[in-house]
Amino acid sequence: MTERPSFPMNVTVEQARQMLADLLPVRSAEQVPVQQAAGRYLAADLPALVSHPSATESALDGIACREADTLDAAPGRPVRLQVVGESRAGVPFSGSVETGCCVRIYTGAPLPPGADAICPVEQLQDDGLDAVWLQRPASPGDVRPEGGDFRAGEVVLRAGQRLTPSRLALAVSLGHALVPVRAQLRAALFSTGDEVREPGEPLAPGQVYDSNRHGLAAMLHEAGCEVLDLGHAPDSLEVLSARIEAAGGADVLITSGGVSMGKYDFMRDLLLEHGRVSFWKVRMRPGGPALLGGWRGLPVFGLPGNPVSSLVVFQVIVRPALTGELPFTLRLRAATPFRALADRAAYWRGVIEGGTVRDYGQQGSGVLRSLSEAGALVIVPEGQAVAAGDEVEVMLF
Ligand code: AMP
Ligand code: MG
Q1: In 253-397, which ranges are continuous DSSP H helix?
Q2: pTM score, two decimals?
Q3: CATH numbers and ranges of domains, the chain
Q4: Does residue 215's CB lie within 6 angstroms of at least one atom of ligand 1?
Q5: Residue 92: what pLDDT?
């Protein structure tokens, strides 16, 4: 390419995310059974339909009594309370607790009327019959007040939040049997490269297993997409065109490989000729030659073939665009120096240890095990250097 390109080149990570997000369809909402909603994104705020706890209840096993009755209890000067019944989870005590009395109570059981404090079973001397002795005052702090977690009507989960296992549990606890979630994006996926083989096939020298496609499929699932796996395509203009055509019904197509400067890197010219190119190359390392374009109505994101680049560009650019969630980052002290080139941000593989982050060592974009062993990406903005002892921004990977 000697003449001036007809598309933007060397965009920033933020521009790349936004340009991809702008090409994606608006997702409608659908109601799904909460049991099937793990990993999905809420399409609306979720209010609590009930309060939790639904009644003031005990936080432990012991007795429920009136605190005022127990204030004089001390080691060697025990206070005696008459046991008049029991309250257990799901089966409350039917009466009320009068002065000098108590009921046996268990975790999660409603606090009976009249009682306002709990004495844990470990602190009781029990005569085995109908009385207990307390060596210290009962505590009003050992109850869980009604609505202390949330009250009916309160909005507890927000539109756009992903239903992680703990949020899914919370949605159930709020009382929802059906939850409104965003329709899943249908993401088509294929990998390219004459050297690329399926798992289990024998490898000839120079060949490589299709780690990108299977890693990316897992990342797409994790990002809440429905994955249309179109397999692997050799480096042939005809096969690549046909494969892109086959992705026609999807909302977005993700590809791996063939976006660089090599003679057999056909993706860019193919899009340029038969579709359009929105940008080529992102100012980040690893991952430079990523490509965004379109083929008829279909947005196409071409990830680099190098295994680290492909997964890192997905994590840093594609995933946030698909999900609307920016990657979670934290600031840590650097144990080793990190730097970025003048014209691109660096995403170093780093190891978090003892509250600091250090350089993993091997930063080659083909060293896939580095992603598995490092666990973190250290983000250095373009042109910046970080000395050991400085704080850096870190993304868990
Ligand atoms: P490319 O971007 O197609 O030039 O590929 C760059 C490097 O990534 C080459 O070493 C390829 O063998 C390797 N590579 C390409 N595609 C894959 C893939 N699907 N899985 C693993 N490695 C790949
Ligand atoms: Mg290739």
Answers
A1: 267-274, 307-313, 319-323, 369-374
A2: 0.91
A3: 9-27+184-323 (3.40.980.10), 29-52+148-182 (3.90.105.10), 57-144 (2.170.190.11), 329-396 (2.40.340.10)
A4: no
A5: 96
